[in-house]
Amino acid sequence: MNTHLQHQINQWLNNDPDPKTRSQLQILIDTNNEAELTTRFSGRLAFGTAGLRGEVGVGPMAMNRLVIRQTTAGLGAYLLDQIDNAAERGVVIGYDGRHDSLSFAHDAASVLTAMGITVRLTHKVAATPLVAFGVKHFKAAAGIVVTASHNPPQYNGYKVYWENGAQIIPPHDSGIAAQIARAATQANPFLDLDDAISQQKLTWLQDDFYQTYRQGVFDAKELQQRSGQDNVSLAYTAMHGVGADMAEAVLKDAGFTQVYSVMVQREPDGDFPTVNFPNPEEKGAMDLVIAEAKKHNATLACANDPDADRFAVAVRTEDGQYKMLTGDQVGVLFGHYLLSHAPKNQRLTGTTIVSSSLLSKIATEFGTQSYTTLTGFKWLMNVGIAKNQADNQFLFAYEEALGYTIGNLVWDKDGLSALVAFAQLTAELTSQGQTIWDRLEQIYRQHGFHLNAQVSIALKADTPNIGAYLREHPPLKIGEYPVVSTDDLKSLQRTAADGSKQSIDLPSSDVLIYALEGGARVIVRPSGTEPKIKCYYEVVETMMPTDTWASAQERAQQAMTTFIESHQASLPS
Q: 283, 345, 372, 505: which is deepest, by most CB within 10 A?
C-alpha cells in the first residue's frame, strides 16, 4: 500500500466518530483489500447544487458521520462568511426515516452549534417540505435536510436550502465545496447536544412547529376549494417514508374523510421492504396503493415519495381500473385549475425545459406567460422568487419528475400541499359531473394531444462526443419534421432555420433543443459522467372532432415511436 493511501486511512481512523464504519474500514485493512481501499479513498463525494447524495459506507467517497461533520463545518464557515447575522438567524435541520438520518442530523447540529450558529432541529422525522417551510418561517440563514428522497435503501443525502428558502444554486455550491475541502483537513468543531441546549444554541422543533406548517396548508389561498369533498375517496401511501401523519392531517383538515392509508407502507422504514425501489415512478411501486383503491372503489390512488416532496396519482377509469397520470399531466391539470381560480395579480407559473410545453399554452390562454428554467427545482424556485412581483405573484411551478409547488408556503416542491390540491381539483370536477379524464381531454382538444417520452441511450465507449458532433452537423430534419429552430444552451444561442440568431436567457448548460414543425420537440442532454445521452421527446397531435381520446393517443403514440426511431438512427453509433 502506498504511503499516501496509508496516511489517508490512518487520518480517517483517527477522526471517524462511528464505531460501525471504523470496524468496516479495519476489516478492509486486515484483509489487505487494497483495491477497495483505493476506491474508497480515491476522492471525495462531490458537493453540488443538490448537496450530497451517495451510498452509506466507509471513507470520503461515501455518506457517513465523518463526511457529514466535515460537510457541515464547511457549510457553517461559508454561512458565517456570506450571510449577515448567520449565527443568530441560524439553521433549520430535519431528517427522514432512513437508518442513519437521525445520527447524521444530530452530528450536523453538534458541529454548527459548536461554531456558534443557532440550530432548530426537528424532534422527530420530518417531510422535506417542512424544512423548506421552516427556513422561510424562521427567516433562517439556511436549512439542511438529511434525506435520499426516493433513492434505494443503501443511500442517504444532505440537501441545503439557502436563506431565501430555495435550494442552493451557483455560486454557493462551489463556495461551500471549497470550505468543505478546507474543513476536511482540520479537526471539526463539535458540541454535545445537551451542552448546546444549555448554551441556548439548540432548540428542538416540537409538534407546534409541525402544526404551524399544517395550519399554513389549511390557510393557503390556493387551497380553499371547500365543497364536494364527500364525492372523493382516495387511497394513500407514504411508501415507507415520513409523509403519512401530515398527509392524513391536511386531507382531514380539507374535509376529505374517505382516506384509506396502505398500512404496511405507512410507517417510516429505511429498508423499504415492500417495494423494489421507493420511487412512485418505478414499475410496481404503486401496486399496493392501487390495490387499496380497488378495495374501496376509491376515486384516486395517491402516493408521496419517502420524503414527501413529490406526489403521484393513479385515477380510476370508467372500467374500474386505475391509470397513472404522468407528471406532465398532473402539472397541466394543476396549471389549468389554479389559473382558472387565481386573482389577476397572481398568475406566475413555471416549468422546466424538459417538461411539457402545454403549460405555456394554457398560461397564454389565461392571458399570461409561464417561465421556463433548466431542469431542477433549484432553478424553478430561484427564478420564481426573482420574478415574483406584487402585480404578478407566484402561483405554481412543476417539473415532469412528479414535483409541484402551489403558492408560496414553501419555495420547493411539496407533495403534501399537492395532495390536497389534487383532491380539491377532483372534488370540483366531480361536483360538475366531470372526471379528471374529461378535463384532460378538454385541454387536449383545445391545445393538441401532447405526448412526452424520455429515452436514455447508452453509447459505445468510442462513440464521438455527441454534443460536439451535433453542433458540427446540425440536423435540418428529424424524422419527417423539419427543424424550425435549435437552442444551444451551451453557447446560449437560438438559431432559426434561416440562420438568424438570438440570445437565450438561461444559465449555460450542455443541452440542445430542436423545435420542429407541427409542435414536436427533441431535447438532447449528453451525460457528463458516462457514455450515454438523455433524449426528451414531445409530439403534438391535433384532435379532430371525430377523434376520441383513444384514437388521438394511438396516433400520437405511433408518431412518437417513429419519431424516436428516426432520431436515434440519425445519431452517430
A: 372
Q: Catalytic site residue 431?
A: no
CB 553 within 8 A of CB 450: no
pLDDT range class, residue 535, cuts 50, 70, 90: very high
Q: What is the pLDDT of residues 41-65, one digit of tens each?
A: 999 999 988 899 999 999 999 999 9
Q: What is the mean pLDDT of residues 390-414?
A: 97
E strands within 403-520?
Answer: 403-406, 449-458, 477-478, 481-488, 493-496, 501-503, 512-516
What single string gives the DSSP state of each residue in 188-255?
PP---HHHHHHTT-EEEE-HHHHHHHHHHHHH-GGG---S-GGG--EEEE-TTSS-HHHHHHHHHHTT
User: pLDDT digit string (tens) for 481-525?
Assistant: 999 999 999 999 999 999 999 999 999 999 999 999 999 999 999
pLDDT at residue 452 in the model:
96
Please identify which of the residues 149, 357, 360, 417 carries the catalytic annotation: 149
Closest CA to 109 of 150, 65, 63: 65
C-alpha cell at 224: 380553499
The CATH T-level fold of domain 448-569 is: Alpha-D-Glucose-1,6-Bisphosphate; Chain A, domain 4 (3.30.530)
